[in-house]
Amino acid sequence: MIEFTGAQAKRKYPKRLRRVAIWDDKKQVIELITNQMSWTANTISELYKSRWQIEIFFREIKQLLHIKSFIGTSENGVMIQIWTALITILVLKYLKALSKFGRRLSNFVAFIRLNLFF
């Protein structure tokens, strides 16, 4: 359990926090700080891992598909863009697996992008 003792910190966040230490796949300790007191450490670590997969997905969207921001601002518009990007990435990964292309997915996407118009 963590509780701030400094006057300014305690004024900004007077509640108690919880430190959860987890092991990742590389046998490294990851320390998380949360205000969720009722969940188990395992639940918190699984949520963290799931969140990390979402971060990786959005990084792939930005890097592979060169999407810098969402075009639509409504919930439906954003969902359409996310589903379209997900389908595009899945198709690209499937095509890469079929082609036995030995390099990274980003190289494969660049190869397709360059050869689409020739």
Describe the structure.
- It is built from four helices and two strands, in the order H-E-E-H-H-H.
- It has helices spanning 7-12, 41-64, 75-99, 105-115, and strands spanning 18-23, 29-34.
- The longest helix has 25 residues, at 75-99.
- The model has no long low-confidence stretch (mean pLDDT 85).
Specify the number of helices: 4
Q: What's the number of domains?
A: 2
Query: Distance between the terminal alpha carbons, to the nearest Å?
Result: 62 Å
Radius of gyration in whole Å, from Cα?
A: 21 Å
Task: Indicate the mean pLDDT.
Answer: 85
Q: Can you count the beta strands?
A: 2
Give the low-pLDDT segments: none
SSE-based structural type? mainly alpha
Share of β-strand residues: 5-15%
H/E order of the elements? HEEHHH
Question: Order of strands side by side in the largest beta sheet?
Answer: 1-2
**Shape from CA axes?**
elongated
| Biggest sheet details | 2 strands, antiparallel
The helicity comes to 55-70%
What would you say about this model in short?
The protein is mainly alpha-helical. The chain has helices spanning 7-12, 41-64, 75-99, 105-115; strands at residues 18-23, 29-34.
